[in-house]
């Protein structure tokens, strides 16, 4: 169980430094399979820490960003 949360931290840290990162970019950057990155991103989205920024695209190309407490995506400069 702890392994999943450790992966969540790595994913969260990457998205913090790279808002708008896609599932594929996250997986490649932290060297994990896309399937695992998807699980981590889904868990973080379900927990309300991240939001899908580009819904309606294939899973591997969805981009993610931090969510505000009210459920609105955090605006990031340049995106």
Task: Explain briefly what this protein structure is.
InterPro entries: HTH_MarR-typ, WH-like_DNA-bd_sf, WH_DNA-bd_sf. The chain has 79 residues and is mainly alpha-helical.
Describe the structure.
This protein is mainly alpha-helical and 79 residues long. The protein is built from three helices and three strands, in the order H-E-H-H-E-E. It has a three-stranded antiparallel beta sheet with strand order 1-3-2. It is globular and about 30 Å long. This is MarR family transcriptional regulator.
Strand content: 5-15%
Mean pLDDT: 82
Which percent bin holds the helix content? 40-55%
Radius of gyration from the CA trace? Answer: 11 Å
- Outline the low-pLDDT stretches: none
- Compute the number of helices: 3
Order of helices and strands: HEHHEE
Total count of strands = 3
Query: SS-based structural class?
Result: mainly alpha
End-to-end Cα distance, whole Å, is 34 Å
Shape descriptor reads globular
Largest sheet: 3 strands, antiparallel
Strand order of the largest sheet: 1-3-2
Domain HTH marR-type: 11-55
Protein name: MarR family transcriptional regulator
Pfam family, one: MarR_2
GO molecular function: DNA-binding transcription factor activity
Main traits of this protein?
mainly alpha; globular; three-stranded antiparallel sheet; single chain; MarR family transcriptional regulator; 79 residues
